[in-house]
């Protein structure tokens, strides 16, 4: 067995990639198949994911669109009560931020609405593969309408006033923590999550060094009686897990794995939600293993976005 320390990484580099590259990089965490990423693996991966209905992968990239349209067109859009979007007026535009999944599902539900067609049609022009099976070419409303749509680049989003920045700027963080911590993190409903799957990952494989990895418990110091007891429990569990894998599947064998098991999770949400998470997960009342990663993460986020994390 392997014991590692918990860690986290703000996924800045992914923010600079194309949508499809971002989706693949995040999606592969479930299978721990990052070694399969090549220069042209992203598109087929994402297409397959969309076909299979592994929908949360399609939440891992958001786009901010700037729209100019009439009051009637906007009112009729709002009447749809679009879900999972952030919508604000700014200067002479309406800002609409949503994930690829949110745009796909809005189009399926209300593709006949003029603004919906304009938004999804605009995204389809640049990224047809992300809307395959969903976009049917539109009803020609775009050509006739006066709606103007443009994409804001990240630099523009980063330059928005604090209140809008908090709503429209999304940031992804990859955590390497134990499963007790991820069980708590996933309670934050406005976030999107992707997590290493114990159903798909078989820890007896070479790529996992044929062993189970555990997170060093922050409660017990190495060398103490408690730590020795904990270590023995993990060793025994690993042995039983590996034995079960000889005759059963990972999804069956994983039923013996404990909270201390190492897992990886990507948490993706806007800065407003990160602020809310930090307000709950860095205080004395929060679980100590959670504070162990959230306190330094909150400090890093504050450095990046001082106007939001005051
Ligand atoms: C110290 C601590 C102890 C806890 N103990 C327990 C426990 O013993 N058992 C347990 O089950 N959970 C426990 N929790 C989890 C806690 O109850 C929340 O589920 C979790 O912290 C998510 O936070 P949230 O609900 O404030 O906001 P999020 O889910 O992060 O949502 C963000 C915001 O969106 C809004 N929102 C989202 N969904 C809804 C909704 N359906 N209705 C209305 N508003 C919504 C709210 O304004 C909310 O503040 C604990 C959390 C903490 C921090």
Key descriptive features of the protein:
binds flavin-adenine dinucleotide; globular; 14 helices; Gyrase A, domain 2; four-stranded antiparallel beta sheet; 310 residues; 10 strands; alpha+beta
Structural account:
By secondary structure, the chain is of the alpha+beta class. The protein folds into two domains: 2-16 and 169-304, Gyrase A, domain 2 (2-Layer Sandwich); 61-152, no CATH class. The chain has 14 helices and ten strands. It has helices at residues 12-15, 19-27, 42-52, 71-78, 100-110, 114-126, 141-144, 154-158, 162-168, 179-185, 225-245, 250-253, 271-281, 288-304; strands at residues 2-4, 7-10, 62-68, 85-90, 93-99, 148-151, 170-178, 192-195, 213-215, 262-270. Strands 2-7-10-8 form a four-stranded antiparallel beta sheet. Strands 4-5-3-6 form a four-stranded antiparallel beta sheet, sandwiched between helices. A hairpin with a 2-residue loop joins strand 4 and strand 5 (93-99). Helix 5 crosses helix 6 and helix 13 (271-281) packs antiparallel against helix 14. The radius of gyration is 22 Å and the shape is globular. The mean pLDDT is 95. The chain binds flavin-adenine dinucleotide.
Compact description:
The chain has helices at 12-15, 19-27, 42-52, 71-78, 100-110, 114-126, 141-144, 154-158, 162-168, 179-185, 225-245, 250-253, 271-281, 288-304; strands at residues 2-4, 7-10, 62-68, 85-90, 93-99, 148-151, 170-178, 192-195, 213-215, 262-270. With 310 residues, it is an alpha+beta fold. The model has no long low-confidence stretch (mean pLDDT 95).
